[in-house]
């Protein structure tokens, strides 16, 4: 009887923490599947010198290499935007969000100085592309965004790309209002559980507000091994096993570049960054967060590479451009 009660308690605990369907990754010796041991060693040396918390390399759904603590959860910063983008794909397919809806249609405004009539013509799609033209102060902004933010009214909605936390935060508000769901509970139920994430629960997210905007940021804590599942989901075209978790059409649409950051030759889709095809092959994209949080997908190599960096252990973090150089070494080692 005691054993039965203990088993029931363990099952209930797993359900409450979102780990009931957790699945361990399958690992494979990289040299047996065509990887260059020497090149991978060089990539690892360069990576570990940057002091990441964890790096995980997955090819064909199997772990070919990892280092650091892949189960340690960290605030993945702006990776949150790509996580929300996936939830949007589900909500759009269910008819709960219309990308052509304007902010006026949805009753979206903000603290004084409130939005103008022109700003309210921005659509949900404009916000997903970071093209709202709304340069209102936003929560959770970096100093760089604050310095570079254009003047209010300087660009009509849809006409100009600017990496804009106001757009990203307001998309969180729209998602909650239009679906009636909490972002973190929704991610847990709709994505983490179907993928068998081992560490994530709805308690690993929080809302962050600042007085000048009514739209909170929504930072997530993720482990590298759970982040890799999210990357693998998008590499699979939104499919996991027998279940189409995110519509395949949304995976393609959200990782298509609609704008380009000239300085770094990279594109921007619906809250995903894209990499140039002439270097990486078709359909290469990544989620990126401040301090070195990255989920990279290189479709031509059937490859997912994740890096996490805990600022408590590495306050300086890792620049995204530096990670991209390591990613090149990793892909060079790959068959």
Can you describe what's shown?
The protein is an alpha+beta fold. The protein has a domain at 27-79 and 219-333: Beta-lactamase (3-Layer(aba) Sandwich), CATH 3.40.710.10. The chain has helices at residues 2-17, 37-49, 79-93, 103-106, 124-128, 143-148, 165-179, 183-195, 224-235, 248-254, 277-280, 320-333, and strands at 54-59, 62-68, 74-75, 208-210, 213-217, 221-222, 239-240, 243-244, 259-261, 266-268, 273-274, 284-289, 293-298, 303-308. It contains twelve helices and 14 strands. It has an eight-stranded antiparallel sheet with strand order 2-1-14-13-12-11-10-9, sandwiched between helices. A two-stranded antiparallel ribbon has the order 3-6. Strands 4-5 form a two-stranded antiparallel ribbon. Residues 1-19 have low confidence and may be disordered. Helix content is 37%, strand content 16%.
Contiguous uncertain segments of 5+ residues = 1-19
- As for the CATH topology of the domain at 27-79 and 219-333, it is Beta-lactamase
Order of strands, widest sheet: 2-1-14-13-12-11-10-9
The biggest beta sheet reads:
8 strands, antiparallel
What distance separates the N and C termini?
53 Å
Helix content: 25-40%
Helix-strand sequence: HHEEEHHHHHHEEEHEEHEEEHEEEH
Shape: globular
Kindly report the average pLDDT value.
Answer: 94
List key phrases describing it.
Beta-lactamase, 37% helix, globular, 14 strands, alpha+beta, 12 helices, 335 residues
